[in-house]
Structure formats: structure tokens, C-alpha cells
Design goal:
Length: 303
Amino acid sequence: MKSKKAKALCMLFIFMLLGSSCGKKQTAQAVNEMDFSLDGIKDVTISYDDENVSFFAGESDHLIIREYMSKDKKSYHAKVSQKKDSIKVSEGGKPFFKGSFTRYVEVYLPDSYSESLTVTTTDGNIDMADLELDMKSIRVDCTSGTFKVKKAAAEDIYFSSTSGNLELGSLAGTQIRIETTQGEVRCEEAEGNVTYTSTSGNAEFLSARGAGTYKANNSGKLSVSYEEVTGDLSFFNKNDDVEVLLPSELSFAFEAVTKNGSINTNFQEKISADGDSITGTVGSNPTVTVKAETKNGNIEVSR
């Protein structure tokens, strides 16, 4: 009998402890600041889990990272791995019962840094809306959080998301790769060779220059507008629509095919239909090819 009573009291204590920890949401305070010289550094990696990571232009030539937490404990501070030419900062520990624990991160990145940057989160948002990046390579992996960037220029740009949205401003790169599973993508400007791949989720590229391959492997509307075309373009959408706007002066070879959908253009007199496919040449002396394909969706291409 005493044993049962003791167990009941123990369980009551645990529930009271959990209830008090969940009910009191404490305000996060700045508890840890890291200051890194970037002399000789070729690669910076910042990796967190469910924390929001916000970037700001640094006022010095050092990388400053500030961690804000609702409870300060040394084991909760970031883990740092620094080598001769690289810096890696990743999240520290958390309370076992983390219901009331909050943490977020501010990163102050100097404009003078022009090497490689990698940022990853699982559930947290990544905010670079105040930054204008110009570096060798930029990689951002965001699982379910939202990623925002104002301006990014690099030889190699890679942005990926599982279910979070990508809100992209101006991108310029030799290679621009964008991959999502279910997230929405909106890009204001893209200049370079674009490779876009998704499973589902709408994608809108408002102004593009260069070449590109765009694939929606399941669903989600694909809308792309090109101001200048310097290489071949390919658009595939399995179960949704493709909308493409091309420069009015562009000369190109055109191919389009759909299984269950319509194909509409504003240059019908230049093309001919053969079953589910349409081919033709638009303009004189075309130097690029434009291809569009859907399985269960409409295709609309205009210039």
C-alpha cells in the first residue's frame, strides 16, 4: 500500500514539474557571444536544430555570433570546431524537458568575407533578408523552417528545403541549384544556370537571365519569366501547369508535349502539332532550345 502511495506521489510531482516548466515561458537573454577572426578562413559552417538564425551585416571584420537563451548553462552553449582555414559552429545541449526553453541566434557577418558559407537548420527559420552576399559559394539547407535572402552572388549557390518556404530576392551565380520537397519557392531575380527540382509545391521565378532546367516531379505550379536567354531551357511538371514567358526577340527551337493537358502559345503560326507534341522554330537562326513537358497539366508559353 505504501509502495503504491509513494509511486502516486512521485507521479504527481513529475506532472507538477512538467506543468510548471511548460506553463512559464521565459524570455531569452543574450548569454553567449563568440568572436572569430576570419583571416585565412575559407569555410564557415553554422548548424542549428529548431533555433531561428538571423543574419546581419557585421560592423567589424570579425564574425560575431550571439546566442540568446531562456536558461543559461555552459553545456547549452554552441559547440565550436575551428581549424586553420575553417570554422564550424553547431548548437549545444538542451534541457531534458525543453518545453519552456527557448533559444535563437544572431550572426553578424562582415561584408569583407568572400569565401564559402554553409548554414543549416532543422525546424528553425534562416533570415538573411538584410544581407547582400558576395562570395565563392553559398549553401543553405532548411528542413521545415522558412529561408529568406535579400541578395546573393556566388560561383555556386545551393538552397534546399524539405517543407519550408524559400523566399529569394536577387540571385546571381555560375550555378544556381534550388531543391525542395514540399516547400513553396518565390525568386525575384535569378541570373545564371538554374537547376530547380521539387516534389510538390509552387515555384515562381519572376525575372531570370541565363539558362535553366526546371523539374516538378509531382505537383505544384511552375511559373518562370525570362528577361534574357543565353542557353537551353527545359521545363517539366508531372501533375500541374507550366507557364513560361520568353523575351519577345528570342529565336529558338521549340518542343512541347503533354499527356493530359493543353498547349497554348502566342506563336501558333510558327509551330505544328503531331499528336500530343508540338514542335517548331521561332525566329531566325535559333541558338537555343526551349522544351516543356507535362503529364497531367497545361503548358502555356509566350514571348
